[in-house]
Inverse folding.
């Protein structure tokens, strides 16, 4: 597999990052302590490089109608300036990727797929665009994405925004985006700022051209006071998203799974007018009770002991296999093991007592409501 490097790779090297392959990209796993990075995001703020994510622009008179057809959500109902979580599915209802769509105008949308799926999603959108009056442009190779996540994220970013424009940031709602002037590198640039994230905390994601990414990264780090902000890698991002009960493609989501089993039924707009890719299969799955009365369902598991379940560990009921862990580890914030797992629907009710087979030893777990962690607003 070809190794890709983000525009911030040299910045990560300077900071002493440990790297790992993620979706074909060399990404920082951690800089010092993944535990310290995790706690920083919960208590102050963390600085993340998300430039491995994709950015696909969809523009033209039929952009909204096209995305209604290509994705499972009702994208045409979005207000300008808003963002929406959605899925792109196969004809059989299998999930190609989960993604975020930003409406930037009446005929202008930004689709942000996951790192390993960016090329596949861009190709699928291009293929599905046949017959629609739209232009699909994959801008992933020219675009970097920097996230600041945590309770101090807003205060830190405001130091780079002219005072008279602070309202653009402070008034920005969750799952919305706006162009904001940022002052850095000896000038001011209008950048797309989204109040989105993958940590369960308040936070922002900033889209910036590759050539300005390092200067912006340095500027954000430079305006933070001691103890306010740390660079954070994939390890802490994974533990943060797990506590927040957020699915990860390749773990909880896949082409073999479906939205209803994953608890994402509300994302699928079966009632929207017209056809969309996967509609017939998804309607049949829902009618068959997928994730409610048949098959398996994604649940949260709280460990009642000290040992954590890990991906692919069997879930047991009275010694019989009834499911499988998709993600699991000790929760740094909560102090006990947590896991996401698919289990047979009859054992998916909150309060159900199950075991996880930890390499031959059954460890007790309990089904709990998601998310495991929810920030105090």
């Amino acid at each position: 597999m070809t190794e890709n490097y983000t525009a911030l790779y040299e910045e990560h090297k300077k900071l002493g990052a440990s790297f790992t392959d993620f979706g074909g990209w060399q990404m920082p796993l951690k800089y010092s302590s993944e535990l310290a990075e995790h706690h920083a995001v919960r208590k102050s703020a963390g600085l993340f490089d998300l430039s491995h994510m994709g950015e696909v622009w969809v523009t033209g008179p039929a952009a909204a109608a096209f995305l209604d057809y290509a994705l499972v959500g009702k994208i045409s109902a979005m207000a300008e300036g808003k963002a929406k979580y959605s899925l792109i599915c196969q004809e059989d209802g299998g999930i190609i990727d989960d993604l975020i769509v930003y409406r930037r105008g009446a005929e202008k949308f930004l689709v942000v797929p996951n790192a390993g799926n960016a090329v596949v999603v861009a190709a699928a959108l291009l293929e599905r665009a046949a017959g629609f009056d739209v232009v699909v442009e994959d801008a992933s190779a020219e675009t970097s994405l920097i996230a600041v996540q945590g309770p101090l994220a807003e205060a830190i970013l405001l130091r780079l925004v002219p005072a008279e424009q602070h309202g653009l940031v402070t008034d920005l709602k969750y799952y919305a985006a706006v162009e904001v002037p940022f002052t850095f590198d000896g000038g001011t640039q209008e950048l797309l700022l989204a109040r989105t994230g993958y940590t369960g905390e308040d936070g922002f994601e900033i889209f910036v051209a590759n050539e300005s990414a390092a200067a912006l990264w340095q500027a954000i780090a430079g305006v933070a006071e001691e103890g306010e902000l740390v660079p954070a890698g994939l390890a802490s991002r994974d533990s943060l998203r797990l506590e927040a009960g957020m699915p990860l493609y390749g773990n909880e989501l896949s082409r073999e799974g479906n939205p209803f089993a994953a608890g994402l039924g509300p994302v699928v707009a079966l009632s929207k007018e017209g056809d969309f890719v996967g509609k017939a299969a998804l309607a049949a799955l829902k009618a068959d009770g997928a994730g409610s009365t048949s098959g398996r369902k994604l649940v949260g598991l709280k460990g009642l002991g000290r040992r954590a379940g890990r991906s692919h560990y069997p879930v047991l009921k009275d010694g019989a296999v009834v499911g499988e862990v998709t993600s699991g580890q000790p929760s740094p914030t909560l102090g006990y093991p947590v896991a996401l797992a698919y289990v047979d629907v009859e054992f998916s009710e909150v309060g159900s007592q199950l075991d996880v087979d930890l390499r031959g030893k059954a460890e007790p777990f309990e089904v709990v409501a998601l998310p495991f962690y929810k920030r105090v607003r």
Observations:
- The chain has a mean pLDDT of 97.
- The domain at 56-119 is CATH 3.30.70.1400 (Alpha-Beta Plaits).
- DSSP finds nine helices and 20 strands in the chain.
